[in-house]
Structure formats: structure tokens, C-alpha cells
Design a protein that fits this description.
Chain B: It comes from Arcicella rosea. Chain B: GO terms for molecular function: transmembrane transporter activity. Chain B: It is a multi-pass membrane protein. The complex is a heterodimer of chains A (254) and B (408). Chain A has 254 residues and is α/β, with parallel strands linked by helices. Chain A has a single domain, classed as 3-Layer(aba) Sandwich (Rossmann fold), CATH 3.40.50. Helix content of chain A is 35%, strand content 27%. The longest helix of chain A is centred in the last third of the chain and has 17 residues. The relative contact order of chain A is 0.17. The model of chain A has no long low-confidence stretch (mean pLDDT 90). With 408 residues, chain B is an alpha+beta fold. Chain B has 2 domains: 183 residues, no CATH class; 181 residues, no CATH class. Chain B is built from 13 helices and 12 strands. In chain B, the strands form 2 sheets. A 6-stranded mixed barrel of chain B has the order 4-5-10-7-9-8. A two-stranded antiparallel sheet of chain B has the order 2-3. Classes of the chains: A alpha/beta (254), B alpha+beta (408). Chains A and B meet through helix 2 and helix 3 of A and helix 1, helix 10, helix 11 and helix 13 of B.
């Protein structure tokens, strides 16, 4: 899947926060293009500007100056409601802390973005949410409450929720930050499968081994991109999981 | 976001905090219930007063002597004796719009039968008095014009008098002789029981005797009359009848056009209106106190909704991140507060009616639940939900999704 179609193009993004009298440049002249079908991992220490960048990319925040084109459409200068609509129909969010609603079943959590999408008929809610849950392997836990699900399962509910509106891009902010390595690989397996189906994935992570599952790595430092290159020796989650399975088998036999 | 979904979301989040939702609702429930109960009790007493005033006769007209002022010192109402017996006759003969008319002389006297004695009101009236007051006889017959002319020593008694003189309400005292101020008088009839009036006065503690008998045998003066009770031919003609009486009396009393009347004419409807106004003021007072509790309930809603917005900041952030617009969040929280006040209003109406019925059953107080009070208190509670729900909902809607998501 090597489409060179420009999905996202940001140019000369600058984001300045003013705290008291000092100016903080969270982003200092960042330019990046993301192709359709890309799997991008953004890395960097905390305070490097990667979260600010994600927020702008996720249409949650506006830069101080710069341009942002998504599918050739200018995203900046839109009001809150228009941004909300973009997030609803073009983007899917996955967070570090899952952020699924407590005391609400998996299915209802996945249905949530549909409630805000006027293009989808109410009668289709159930089917769409069901399909999204099946695609992350939770077809049998549809009515489970979040407290009945493991961390990995909760994150999969969150991914299903991100998928339910057929987004063009999935924004994942440290999706494996709260998970053990095996579960992390399972999540990466889902991401790679989705990516293979043509969904663009942008993921922030501070774990280098997780970044190895992406196609491209970008490193932020002090509000600037200091590294942007294709991943060599890209890891495939399915195989990594097999290795783990072998290791545990060996342990249990010895 | 479709409205049905919004209701679903609102109900779900209210059910998630059942106790809290109920306690918030309780404020509105108590508010609405007390407004309805208070209005029902107020309206009940209002109608009760009106009915009992009306029982004095809807067409009746009362003529009292005017006030007397001696050297600038007013002696108060009816302090002067200005109405004469002949005035009564003049009205009877000349006023076409007056149907019945009776002079009324009233005094308290000691009444004796055998070893029993009782202090009661003696009313000297003519036969017309019974017609005007709609009084009926339980036993015996009434006195006649002939009795009046003959200054006959006969009387009609109320049941309270019968009870106290003869020891039993149901005793038949017809033909018995009682002594009023040492004058032997024969009982010829017993009045039907009327009970208490609105002011707690026992209407059965009364003796009626022919006017001439009371005036000539028991009163010190034979020229003047305490008051006159008359009735108009119909309710609509009462006002004209009052004019007729007023003009006639002014003429007879030779009052110059520039001078005030030396008598007062009142109608039943005026008195009824006065009491109606008093009771309306009481109702408004009760209802306004009750509506304060409704207001407090509304503030309770605002308080809980504010807590709820803070508590659910993260949820709001999530909803916004996945595409909820400000107005979606606003509507969600507004619907929650409207649902609370709406359901509170419904339960409050039921409770209010129940309380009113309990007051009626166990308190013996008349209650009238009007559709108006139900509609008004229900609308008021819903409006309170809207009003006090607005600020927290607005606060939720204006949250920044990034900050809301980060909120712990």
C-alpha cells in the first residue's frame, strides 16, 4: 500500500503559549505531509510539542500561525462546530486512558459517535457498532460494562468507537501507555490490520519498540521535527505475538 | 443529534445516579405539591366562605342606621338611631324592585323553661325574614301577619335553644311556653338546623318572634328599628333596588342633596366580595410561600447540575472529541434538568392532590383543586428546570475539549 496521495499537509505550524510574560513555543515551524495509507509514529520527550501537534492534527486546537489541509480542504479558521463535525466524520480518536464512558455498555460506547453524525440513520446504529466491535475481536462482549473488561479490551472498545464512523484517519495518543507489552502488541496488531485495509494511522508513543510497528517515525524536540524517516526492520505484530507465545510455551515446559 | 437519542442519553445518566436524581427531583416535587395543596386549600375556603355568605341570601339588602358624630367624635357604624318603623312600611309600599322586607330588632335575653335557662339572641322580624334568609321550619308553623298585628306572644326557636332548654335536640317543643325576660311566649315552630357559619357562629342559637312582640314587649324604644333586611326581586335588580331604597330614605329623612346619608345600605354581594378578597389574599399568600419552595427546588437543580457538569467534565471532553458540538452538550444537560423538573412536576401534582385530599378527609377542610393551579405549577416547575438548567448546561457546552479530556 504505497499511495502517494496527500491526505494531510501541514505547513509552518507555530503554536505559542503565553504564560505570564514569557512566550513558550510549543511548536516552532513544523511542516509535515501524511500520505493516505500511512502509519505514522510520533515520538519525543514530554514537552517536545508532540501532544500540541496531535491536538492540532486532531482538530481539537488551532495553531497560532500556519496552514493545515486535510484532503485538500483548509481546516484552519473553522469554528468550533465545524471542527466538531470534522472530528466526527473524518477522525477517530484513541487515548492512552481509553476514555470510554463508565457504566455504559461496550455497544453503547461504540454507538456514541453515531449520535452526533446526522448522516447515519438511527436504525443502523446497532449494526454499525456491532461490526466495529467484531472488527476488533469483541463481538462476544457487546453488552459488557467497562469494569467487566480488561485494559486491552477497553482499548479495543475505544478503537471500535474510533472506527464506527468510517474515519479516514485514526489518531492514537499513546494507545499502549497503560497496557502491558503483550496487550500492546495485540493493539498494534489491530492497528496494522486496519492500516492494511487503507486506514491512515497517526500514533504518538514514547516507546521505541511500539514505534517499530509503524511505517514512518517522526521525532519531535523543542517544538521541531528533528527526525522523519521510514522504519527499517518494521515489526509485524502477528509475528511478535507468535514469538511471545513460543517464549511462554518454553517457560511452561521448562 | 436526534431528540429521541438526547432523551435516551439524559435518562441513562439520570438513572446512573438514581438517588441523586431523586433527591434533586424531591425539591421540585415538594414545591409543586405544596403550591397545588395550598391553592386547593385556599380555593376551598374561598368557595366555602362564598357559599356561606350566599346562604344569607344572594339578593338580600341590609339597611343600617348611619354613623353618628357628636362634636366631631364619630360614634362608629350604626351608632345612631335613624331608621323608623314607618321607613320599613314606606319601602314595602313604594319600592317596586324590593321583593321581601322585614325590620330586624335584635337583642340578647335570658330564656327560661322549667329549671333550665339559656342566654340567646332574640330577633324581632316579620314573616318575610324567613323567605329572605331561606330559612325553613323543621316542626310547627311560622307566625302570621295577624300574630304581628296582635303582638302575639309566639316564637320560633333554633335547635341549639331546644337542646339547652329541653335537654334534647329532637324534643318536640311545639306548644311549650318559655319565658323570655319574664314574658311567657309559646313556641309554635322549630327552625331547620343550619349549623355553624364560616365564622364559627352557631346559626341555630336563635329565637325568632314577631317584630311587634319584640319591639313592644322587649325593646325600650318603639319608634326605631335596629336594621332592615330586604331582598331584591332578582340578583340583577339588587343594585337598582338599592338606589330605590336610598332615594326613598333620603327623601323621607329630608336629607339635602349636599349632605351624606344618615343610613347605610349594603348588599349581600358586597359582603361576599369583601370576604372573597380576603380569602384571595390568603390564597396568594399561601401560594407564594409555597412557590418559594419551588424556587429553592430549582436552585437545587442548578446545584446538582453544576456538580454533575464538573464530575462529568471528562465525559464532556470525550463527547466533544468524537464530534459533539457545543449545542449537543447544551441540549443534553438541558434535557436532564428538564426531565428532572418535568418528572418532579408530575409526581408533585400527584402528591399535591393527595395532600389536599388528606386535608379534606382528615382535617375536614374544604379543598378545591383547580385545573389552573395544576397547569400553572407544572409550567412553573418546567420553566424553573429550563432556567436553572441553562447556566450549568452553558458551562458544559463552553468547555474546551482538550482541557476537558485532561481533567482528572
Amino acid at each position: 500500500m504505497k499511495a502517494s496521495e496527500n491526505l494531510i499537509s501541514v505547513q509552518n505550524l507555530i503554536k505559542t503559549y503565553i504564560t505570564g510574560t514569557t512566550e513558550v513555543h510549543a511548536l516552532n515551524d513544523v511542516s509535515l505531509t501524511i500520505d493516505k495509507g500511512e502509519f505514522l509514529a510520533i515520538m519525543g520527550a514530554s514537552g517536545s510539542g508532540k501532544s500540541t501537534f496531535m491536538n492540532i492534527l486532531g482538530c481539537l486546537d488551532n495553531p497560532t500561525t500556519g496552514t493545515y489541509l486535510m484532503e485538500g480542504i483548509d481546516v484552519l479558521g473553522r469554528n468550533r462546530d465545524e471542527l466538531a463535525e470534522l472530528r466526527n466524520q473524518k477522525l477517530g480518536f484513541v487515548f492512552q486512558s481509553f476514555n470510554i464512558l463508565p457504566r455504559t455498555s461496550a455497544l453503547e460506547n461504540v454507538e456514541l459517535p453515531l449520535l452526533y453524525n446526522s448522516k447515519i440513520a438511527v436504525k443502523d446504529y446497532g449494526d454499525r457498532a456491532m461490526n466495529a466491535l467484531k472488527s476488533v475481536g469483541l463481538g462476544d462482549r457487546v453488552n459488557a460494562m467497562p469494569n467487566e473488561l480488561s485494559g486491552g479490551q477497553q482499548q479495543r472498545v475505544a478503537i471500535a468507537r474510533a472506527l464506527v464512523n468510517d474515519p479516514v484517519i485514526i489518531m492514537a495518543d499513546e494507545p499502549t501507555g497503560n497496557l502491558d507489552s503483550r496487550t500492546s502488541y495485540e493493539i498494534m496488531q489491530i492497528f496494522q490490520a486496519l492500516n492494511d485495509k487503507g486506514i491512515t494511522v497517526v500514533m504518538v508513543t514514547h516507546e521505541p519498540d511500539i514505534a517499530q510497528f509503524a511505517k514512518t517515525n517522526v521525532v519531535f524536540k523543542d517544538g521541531k521535527i528533528i527526525f522523519n524517516d521510514t522504519v527499517k526492520d518494521r515489526k509485524i505484530a502477528t509475528e511478535e505475538l507468535k514469538k511471545i507465545a513460543l517464549l511462554t510455551d518454553e517457560k511452561s515446559t521448562t | 443529534m436526534r431528540i429521541l437519542n438526547l432523551f435516551k442519553v439524559a435518562f441513562r445518566s439520570l438513572l446512573r445516579n438514581k438517588l441523586r436524581s431523586f433527591l434533586t427531583m424531591l425539591g421540585i416535587i415538594i414545591g409543586v405539591a405544596s403550591v397545588i395543596a395550598m391553592l386547593a386549600i385556599g380555593e376551598g375556603s374561598n368557595q366555602n366562605i362564598k357559599a356561606s355568605v350566599a346562604s344569607l341570601g344572594t339578593n338580600s339588602i341590609m339597611v343600617y342606621p348611619g354613623n353618628n358624630a357628636m362634636g366631631g367624635v364619630s360614634q362608629g357604624a350604626a351608632s345612631n338611631k335613624t331608621i323608623r318603623v314607618e321607613d320599613v312600611e314606606a319601602i314595602r309600599d313604594n319600592c317596586d324592585l324590593v321583593n321581601f322586607i322585614s325590620p330586624v330588632d335584635q337583642k340578647r335575653a335570658q330564656v327560661i323553661y322549667g329549671s333550665q335557662n339559656w342566654n340567646t339572641s332574640i330577633l324581632g322580624v316579620t314573616n318575610d325574614y324567613l323567605a329572605i334568609r331561606s330559612l325553613t321550619l323543621a316542626k310547627g308553623s311560622t307566625f302570621t301577619t295577624a300574630d304581628d298585628r296582635a303582638v302575639a306572644k309566639v316564637c320560633l326557636v333554633g335547635v341549639t335553644v331546644v337542646l339547652n332548654l329541653f335537654g334534647d335536640e329532637n324534643f318536640n317543643p311545639i306548644g311549650e311556653i318559655i319565658r323570655i325576660n319574664s314574658i311567657p311566649v309559646k313556641i309554635i315552630g322549630v327552625l331547620s338546623k343550619m349549623g355553624q357559619n364560616t365564622f364559627g357562629q352557631d346559626q341555630d342559637d336563635i329565637i325568632l318572634a314577631p317584630f311587634s312582640t319584640v319591639q313592644k314587649r322587649m325593646m325600650s324604644s318603639s319608634m326605631y328599628v335596629n336594621s332592615i333586611l330586604a331582598s331584591g326581586k332578582s340578583e340583577g335588580q339588587v343594585v337598582d333596588a338599592v338606589d330605590e331604597i336610598t332615594n326613598l330614605l333620603r327623601d323621607k329623612h329630608k336629607i339635602a342633596p349636599s349632605d351624606d346619608n344618615d343610613f347605610t345600605v349594603r348588599t349581600q354581594s358586597e359582603i361576599s366580595n369583601i370576604f372573597g378578597t380576603i380569602s384571595k389574599v390568603m390564597t396568594i399568600l399561601l401560594a407564594s410561600i409555597a412557590s418559594i419552595s419551588l424556587l429553592v427546588g430549582g436552585i437545587g437543580i442548578m446545584n446538582i447540575m453544576l456538580v454533575s457538569v464538573t464530575e462529568r467534565t471528562r465525559e464532556i471532553g470525550i463527547r466533544m472529541a468524537i464530534g459533539a458540538k457545543g449545542k449537543d452538550i447544551l441540549t443534553q444537560f438541558m434535557i436532564e434538568s428538564i426531565v428532572i423538573s418535568f418528572m418532579g412536576g408530575l409526581i408533585g401534582i400527584a402528591l399535591g392532590i393527595l395532600v389536599a385530599e388528606l386535608v379534606a378527609t382528615f382535617g375536614g377542610w374544604p379543598v378545591v383543586i383547580t385545573v389552573f393551579s395544576v397547569v400553572v405549577s407544572f409550567l412553573f416547575s418546567t420553566i424553573i428546570g429550563l432556567f436553572f438548567g441553562w447556566y450549568p448546561a452553558q458551562k458544559a457546552a463552553s468547555l474546551n475539549p482538550i482541557d476537558a479530556l485532561r481533567y482528572e
